[in-house]
DNA sequence: GCGACAG
DNA sequence: ATCTTGTCGC
């Protein structure tokens, strides 16, 4: 018989309830004019361990949507006490994300996350969950597929921009999107206050020849590694 | 014991 | 996520 951790079960139930209660606040329609988007911020985290304690740093890189130039970079760091559990990533990463976001001198028009949004067991991936606090439109960008209810992802054609919808229960949860030819696709989904067509368009407009990931997320990813190295060298976060 | 599993 | 160099393929 399988062991059951009652404390953990209780926690999971509480977190699941929180996610279910937030769902009614999700709106998959644009709350803005696409032509008015000036800046987009990419969000990512990196982790490391010191004496059995896990530390993390969250970096947010904001770019100018038209020129793709970096406008501002901020970061936060600290102890991580919530374990990674598939389906509950937001509870682990949001504290540092919100702390970093507060440091931005100007709010971006939209946030892109390294992880899912609506493409989630309860439509509450980190991109969607974060929007509740950031109060801005968000998009989820995942590098690997989170299988839901046994539904597999269908490989899109090997042409930049082609995609297949991830349909579950007659509803589009997200898209498997080919952003670069001959490179495996990414999995995008609405975060909040945006539709899937617009999400796809914006992600594709942020692809350059350097990565299959949209520029904001890629730059945030690179930044987390840089900041982590700095923090470790300076004996901070330990 | 085995397979699943966003980051 | 993280540990890590070279190497197979186009």
From TrEMBL:
- One Pfam entry name: Endonuclease_5
List of residues binding Mg(2+): 44, 114
GO molecular function term, any single one: endonuclease activity
Question: In this chain's numbering, which residues are marked as the site (Interaction with target DNA)?
Answer: 84
The compartments listed are: Cytoplasm
User: Gene3D superfamilies in the record, alphabetically?
Assistant: archaeoglobus fulgidus dsm 4304 superfamily
Q: Which cofactor does it need?
A: Mg(2+)
Q: What is its EC number?
A: 3.1.21.7
Specify the superkingdom.
Bacteria
Q: Which HAMAP family match?
A: Endonuclease_5
* Family statement drawn from the similarity comment of this UniProt entry: Belongs to the endonuclease V family.
**What is the protein's given name?**
Endonuclease V
Biological source species: Solibacillus kalamii
> What gene does the UniProt entry assign to this protein?
nfi
